[in-house]
Amino acid sequence: MSDSTLLKKRHSAENRFKIYGIASLLIALFFLVSFVYSIVRDAIPAFTQTEIQLEVNFDPSVIDLSAASNDEGRLRAIRGANYNMIIGEALKNALPDSEEDGYQLTNSLVSSSAQYRLMAQVEQDPGIVGSTQNVWLPSSGAVDSAFKGYVDQNKAEGDREVKDAEIAFVNTLDQQGRLRSSFNETMFSNGDSRSPQDAGIKGALIGSFYTLLVTLLLSFPIAVLAAVYLEEFASKNKFTEFLEANINNLAAVPSIVFGLLGLAVFISFFGIPRSTPLVGGLVLTLMTLPTIIISSRAALKSVPPSIRDAALGLGASKMQVVFHHVLPLALPGMLTGTIIGMAQALGETAPLLMIGMVAFIVDPANGILDPSTVMPVQIYIWSDLPDRAFVARTSFAIIILLCFLIVMNALAVLLRKKFERKW
């Protein structure tokens, strides 16, 4: 075979390799774009909430403040009033042809949180008792789906969640101009709920914050000190090699194994309360430690030996060389590894399911010992619920989680760029 033929074959092989590489990138990009598109498309309905405008009569016979002699008694009377009765009367006035009574209309057309909105309005201004006000109240999930056009009216009534009567009510209210879509603030201000229109991610966000705080406070100092000892002070013997091999292997252990370990040690043996950010943070610390130790050792190795030799030559002790010169120079790489480890911990679900953070918890946690949930588990819970409205909530929560992960990874890149040293 001549040289020109060999050269031609080599160029052909290089061209085929480039085509395969470009095709692989395009396939990966296609799947990424498809994933992002489907998530955003499904999440769009969760950004808005349908509201119903009602002429609400704050009936003094229902909100009876006449017997209240002080502020405490007035507050007790306001919070003890039957606001569903007031909403029912307003709905009956808006839908005079309806055969259903006020309570039935309230249950099918208005969110269960509507009564609390009225109560908050009266608490803020008790003077409105006895007057009639135009008030926008959050609708039920059925009205929300029908108004947004997500109900297939070609299906038989028994095969869909929204009944014909509810669709008729929506059409009537829409013709009267009593329906609107507004920004869904409850997604950020509410905790979990079995009603999709009242469900929010506030509890999961706060739970994730406390869990990651515990993870960071425990894993960073322990991992950095372990890396410094292994890299700078430990003798090179069989025991050290055994430790290093186990740390490397732990980084590849499935995360659910750490959940089982946490369940056995922290909950069964030490008796730490289940479903708390403390036990979640401890489990994620076990999972994150190998990642931070490995990245910290790599950062320490990247510091040139000349730095150590120069410091030793000037009379510094081994401890001074490490903590005054080597560690500050390796710290940016350690921080980058830590942020990547924390981003990995933020997205973990399996170990947290094992320690009971899958429980239904409405109120946000006030500390690391309060029952709580976290973002990945909240997404898992919502994805398992049958109501179609939770599909949008699930996709919305995924977007928030992805935004957090992107921000944390971007922070790692910025730190590396800012503190990177050229030797």
What does this structure look like?
The chain has 423 residues and is mostly helical. It is built from 17 helices and 3 strands. Strands 2-1-3 form a 3-stranded antiparallel sheet. α3 (83-94) crosses α4, α9 packs antiparallel against α14 and α14 (318-346) runs antiparallel to α17 (389-419). The longest helix is centred in the N-terminal third of the chain and has 41 residues, at 3-43. The chain is extended, with a radius of gyration of 30 Å.
Distance between the termini: 48 Å
- Low-pLDDT parts are none
Strands, count: 3
Number of helices: 17
Spatial shape: extended
Range of strand content? 5-15%
Main sheet strand line-up: 2-1-3
Radius of gyration: 30 Å
Defining key terms:
423 residues; mainly alpha; 17 helices; 3 strands; 5% strand
Question: Could you provide a short overview of the structure?
Answer:
Helix content is 64%, strand content 5%. With 423 residues, the chain is mainly alpha-helical.
Helix-strand blueprint:
Blueprint: H1 3-43, E1 48-57, H2 71-79, H3 83-94, H4 102-109, H5 114-124, E2 132-138, H6 141-147, H7 164-175, E3 179-183, H8 186-189, H9 202-233, H10 238-250, H11 255-269, H12 277-301, H13 305-313, H14 318-346, H15 350-354, H16 375-383, H17 389-419
Antiparallel strand pairs: 1-2, 1-3
Helix pairs in contact: 1-17, 3-4, 6-7, 9-12, 9-14, 9-16, 11-12, 12-14, 13-14, 14-17, 16-17
